[in-house]
């Protein structure tokens, strides 16, 4: 292959898949609530199906520690709510306010990956359960299945799109909206 074709081939291959390059933002730690629940399905599904990598991030799931991204029922000080997991605000994705200001594209990439993960988990609950048990082998699949049957419809009930939040203090409703418009 001539050297002149290598850049052309790279450009063609880059356009074949995702909206971002697989390593544009790199690893992104995300902290989930302490207890495993069906409300985690979209996160695990996003990593299982590599929706995260398709958006240029690699979500690193944890249940403890510090991270710029966290799913919680009580965002800590300095963590801005950008996406509702369980509306209106029973469970939300929040992001460190500095990251939101300095790296909005990364925040949008995470939001898009989660929107796709949760939306597909609603459509494919058995696959969502497989995604969870692939990462958490000792999880009680039957209990999670029953919980998922109840939880999944709530994620989008009455919402124009997954993750929609209202404007207000400590919130940035434009992230979920912009991520939904990108897809």
From TrEMBL:
Residues 163-183 are annotated as: Disordered. It comes from the Bacteria. This is Lipoprotein. Residues 168-183 have a biased composition (Basic and acidic residues). Keywords: Signal. Residues 1-22 form the signal peptide. It comes from Solirubrobacter phytolaccae.
């Amino acid at each position: 292959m001539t050297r002149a074709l290598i850049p052309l081939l790279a450009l063609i291959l880059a356009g074949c898949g995702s909206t971002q390059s697989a390593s544009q933002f790199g690893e992104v730690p995300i902290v989930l609530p302490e207890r495993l629940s069906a409300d985690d399905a979209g996160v695990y599904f996003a990593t299982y199906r590599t929706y995260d990598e398709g958006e240029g991030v690699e979500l690193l799931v944890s249940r403890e520690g510090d991270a710029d991204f966290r799913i919680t029922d009580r965002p800590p000080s300095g963590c801005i709510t950008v996406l509702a997991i369980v509306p209106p605000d029973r469970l939300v994705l929040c992001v460190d306010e500095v990251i939101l200001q300095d790296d909005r594209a990364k925040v949008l990439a995470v939001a898009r990956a989660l929107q796709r993960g949760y939306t597909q988990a609603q459509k494919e609950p058995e696959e969502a359960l497989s995604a969870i048990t692939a990462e958490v082998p000792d999880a009680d699949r039957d209990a999670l299945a029953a919980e998922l049957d109840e939880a999944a419809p709530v994620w989008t009930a009455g919402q124009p799109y997954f993750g929609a939040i209202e404007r207000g203090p400590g919130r940035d409703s434009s992230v979920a909206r912009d991520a939904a418009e990108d897809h």
